[in-house]
Write a structure and sequence with these properties.
Blueprint: E1 7-9, E2 19-27, H1 34-49, E3 55-58, E4 77-84, H2 90-103, E5 109-114, E6 117-121, H3 126-139
Antiparallel strand pairs: 1-6, 2-4, 2-5, 3-4, 5-6
């Protein structure tokens, strides 16, 4: 598929107590000034906080993404979301991120990591993005 969505591994495992931790790293459009980028990330966080999640918080400072170029904007930071593993909220979380990206007039990227599996989402074509996201969700849900 395109080079705008990638999968790599190497992150935290889910908690044994039935709570799954998902880390989202917002990588803003490099054309935005830092204040605009921060506002955009806060809007995504607000949308996520409206979901049926266990908790939401700030994660540790994120490393520079593998594909970052010298002129790329730095990562705003991480949003850590705790979900009930049995709640079925993960697909809704991914859809919320996908919709947020689709509504944006600029080219943000969001890195989503669960159980050591990372997918980077941006403004791919709808069909390409849907196929990649569906495969990712299937890996982390019962169906």
């Amino acid at each position: 598929m395109g080079d705008d969505t990638s999968t790599r591994t190497g992150h935290k495992e889910s908690a044994a107590d039935g709570i799954t931790t998902v880390e989202l790293i917002v990588i803003p459009d490099p054309e935005l000034d830092p204040e605009q980028a921060e506002r955009a990330a806060r809007r995504l966080r607000a949308e996520i906080s409206g979901l049926d999640i266990e908790s939401i918080g700030h994660g540790p400072a994120a490393p520079v993404p593998d594909r970052a170029k010298a002129g790329d904007a730095v990562t705003i930071g991480a949003i850590v979301v705790a979900l009930s593993a049995a709640g079925g909220v993960f697909p809704t979380l991914i859809d919320t991120v996908r919709d947020w990206l689709g509504r944006s007039a600029v080219r943000h990227r969001v890195s989503v990591t669960i159980d050591g599996d990372t997918i980077e989402l941006d403004r791919a074509s709808d069909a390409e993005r849907r196929a990649l996201i569906d495969a990712y969700i299937r890996r982390h849900t019962d169906g």
